[in-house]
Amino acid sequence: MNVIPAIDLLGGRCVRLYQGDYNQSETFSDDPVAVAQRWAAAGAKRLHLVDLDGAKEGKPTNREAIAAIASALSIPVELGGGLRSREDVVALFELGVQYAILGTVAVEQPELVEQLCAEFPGRIIVGIDARNGKVATRGWLETSDVMATELAQRMAAYGAAEIIYTDIHRDGTMSGPNREALRELAQAIDVPVIASGGVSSIADLLGLIALEQYGVTGAIVGRAIYTGDIDLAEAIRAVGDGRITDVPPDLGSSALA
Known about the structure:
This protein has 257 residues and is of the alpha/beta class. Helix content is 37%, strand content 28%.
């Protein structure tokens, strides 16, 4: 079970939202690079970044902070938020980010996801954020009629490396992950599923180990590592520090042209 710390960027700062509500944000640090280095030093094998401004505006926004974080770390960085075109994804990779997380376009431009999965195998992750089983898009400001499991099956068929599943009602609440929804999703596809939202304790992480047999192979932790409810180093020791995927080789700028 891979424990993946999260940094949510809003206005260049490290924040956390409550249930995806931009009006309920709490700033934890004005120095996201220092936070990223702290999580790497604690033993994280991967860092999860979210460009909240990008998700809301439909285009990557916190480029300076993203580039600084990627260059400061030796572990892989994944990022989602506002990636709506091939150009956005290429620019992200050129900043040093290893994995691109696509969300809104999976619903609105599924053919783009298919194209990118073929062009950058192993580097495209699909983020599925669900509200009552239906996929939310555009920074969680809109809810589609697409069911989460249906979208996951389609994206897995396209070649997505992983699916990150977030239960919006659990996100930022520290009320525990939605294990039933995670199991249902993982059983429906044959690619790894990463749990996101609601993890509040090491006990929550240990509870997810029972879902490994279905394909849930990691968990993203956010608010709880900032409040101190979870000690990241201790959590990694408790549930294991294995990587879900290997870091892809340096493709070079020519491969991204």
